[in-house]
Fold this protein.
Amino acid sequence: MMKAEIISIGSEILSGQITDTNANFIAKKLVESGIDLEYISAVSDNPKSLLSTLKLALQRSDLIITTGGLGPTEDDITYQTIARALNLKLIKYPEAEENLKRILNKINKIISPSNLKQVYLPEGAKIIINRYGTAPAMILEKDNKIICSFPGVPHEMKNLIEENLIPYLKEKYPPSVIKKSKILKLTGLGESSVNELIRDYINKQTNFSFG
C-alpha cells in the first residue's frame, strides 16, 4: 500500500510566525483520495536540513509532497535540493519561463535574474504551470517514487493540488477503499470513559481507527 508524506518547507513555520495550514489541507485531500498518509514534517530553509529530510522521506515513503521554497529568493531552495537528493540536473523549462514573463508583464514588472531562477526544475519533471503565481509546481516520478512540489502560498497550492495532483492520483491509483470519517462531539465524558463504551464495537471492526 502506498505511503505518503508531506513536507512543509519554510523557516517561518518553525519560528511560529505562520501556522502550517497547507499540510492540513493536503492531508484531507489525500485521505479523500484513499491515500494513506504516514508522515507530516516541517523543515527550515537550511539546505542541509532539507536534504536530510528529503533523503529520509525517499527511504520510507512512496509519495512525497512538498510545499514552499519555490520562490525567487535565496532561501527558496526546494527544486535545487530535490535535484541533489535524486542526482538530477536542473534544467530550464520554456513553458515556465513563458508563464513567468506573462505574469510579470501583466503587472509591468521587469524580469530579474532572481525571477528566472523559478524556471529551472529537476530534469524529467512534469511541470504544472501556475496560473495563480510565478512559481511552477511539478510531479516527478523516479525509482518508483513520486515527488510533488507546490508553492507555499495557500491559495496557489490549493488550486494547483485540486486541479492537478488529485486527478493525477485518482487516475494512477484508483482508490480500492473509500475512507470515511466522522466527528463525534461528546461532553461530560473523559477519553478513557469513551474508550470503555466503544471498545467492544472497535474490536469487531476491520480497518478502523479512532483518535
User: Anything to note?
Assistant: The longest strand covers residues 36-43.
